[in-house]
Amino acid sequence: MSHHSSGCADARSAACPCSRCDLLLGLDGVHVEAVERLDGLLVVTVSSPAAPAGCPSCGVLAVGRGRRRRVLHDVPGATRVRLIWRQRVWRCDDPDCMRRTFVEQVPTLVAARGSITMRAVTWAIGQLRREHATIAGLARQLGTSWKTVWRAVEPELVKLAADESRFENVTTLGVDEHIWHHVDSRKRGPKELTGMVDLTRDEHGRTRARLLDLVPGRSGKAYAAWLDERGDAFRNNVKVAALDPFAGYKTAIDDKLEDAVAVLDAFHVVKLGTAAVDEVRRRVQQDTLGHRGRKGDPLYGIQTILRAGAENLTEKQRTRLAAAIEADPAHDEVFVAWQCAQQLRSAYHQKDLAEGRRIAEKVVDTFHTCPIPEIARLGRTLRRWRAAFLAYFTTGRSSNGGTEAVNGIIELHRRLARGYRNRDNYRLRMLLAAGGLTP
Ligand SMILES: [Zn+2]
């Protein structure tokens, strides 16, 4: 790449008076002295304009002691970019001052000990947030190490996470159990976290679920402590509190969110139904064949069909389901359980909320009498949670889809990063990916 086409001073020996390079590079606080290509890299030499500097210790006017070359990683384009920053070095001449020399700082360019430019840090955070990037991938693009990228990004994420303004305007709040690792808890601490999700609808009635926080432990205490930290204004603002059927969270809501309606999250209720069908299938399988499901067993091949919504099944899947049920009269139990789960699911899928509520009431009034023990147990759970279960239909589908969406993003990012060892890093990354940190 040629540097200047015309009307420009020699860029190598002196600061270029042409503002075009500065515009092209768009760096704050420094100007471009030279641009060249070296070994497939774009190398840009920059420096700050000359200006007097005071000693940071005593304030006495300092004496220039020349320059130091700092190599910085910048936002990559078609090739990687290196900035050579000719950083000014100063000396304090005050005989009473402890400080001998100091180097200039340009915070808009780079953090004091950083090697990645501020705008590259901003770029990296954007990539992590919107493009499902990984730290390893960003390190490759910048031509540096995982550690260097994370060291530059982490303090910015900490700052964003500490900004309480991100909790403003939350009127529908979800809470959810969250398993963050599957290794020995003696190695990595408790597996469970409690996750808080903003399920508030925007002016168009759409939920843009945001993961607000992840705190250690699965307990009402963990949730209550988090609610306390948010303060009165936040707690008074919450009108709907969605949750999975876990008594600890309900206690926290009753204690701390007195004005809020507790609502069972649709996603979790449907999951309870699916889990019950799965249990029936496994039990019947064991009873009829005396072993766990194997390839070729009629009930084994229909696991995923049983988990799907009936309306989404293809003709082929329906035929397979029917064949599996007909293979043995004992399989009728599986079919009945499946129908129950479908009925439960259909309450949430009604266009008309009143019709949905009618189905939900029927479910809660009948399931506990079902001769299939797994369905009866589901029925008893729903009866215990009757008010919160039915509240979904009187709060305008308050929790629909949001929790599921956030869980999906978390799963994706966990896979992308191939696991996390540090809970604080995990929290920051998940908050960023799931919309909780808005730069
Ligand atoms: Zn000094």
Describe this structure in words.
Residues 104-153 form the Transposase IS204/IS1001/IS1096/IS1165 helix-turn-helix domain. The protein is 44% helix and 16% strand. The chain has 439 residues and is of the alpha/beta class. Strands 1, 2, 3, 4 and 5 form a five-stranded mixed sheet that branches. Strand 3 and strand 4 form a beta hairpin. The protein binds zinc ion. The site of zinc ion has 8 residues, from loops. Zinc ion is lined by residues 55, 57-58, 60, 92, 94, 97, 99.
Structural class: alpha/beta
Question: First CA to last CA: what distance?
Answer: 34 Å
Helix count equals: 17
**What is the global morphology?**
elongated
The tally of strands reads: 10
Radius of gyration: 30 Å
- How many separate structural domains? 4
CATH class (first level) name of the largest domain: Alpha Beta
Mean pLDDT: 89
Order of helices and strands: HEEEEEHHHEHEEHHEHEHHHHHHHHH
Low-confidence regions? 1-15
Which percent range fits the helix content? 40-55%
CATH level-two architecture of the largest domain:
2-Layer Sandwich
Strand content: 15-25%
Ligands and ions found:
zinc ion
> CATH-wise, what's the superfamily of the largest domain?
Ribonuclease H-like superfamily/Ribonuclease H
Q: Do you know the CATH topology of the largest domain?
A: Nucleotidyltransferase, domain 5
Strand count, sense and barrel status of the largest sheet are: 5 strands, mixed
Question: How do you describe this structure in short?
Answer:
The chain is of the alpha/beta class and 439 residues long.
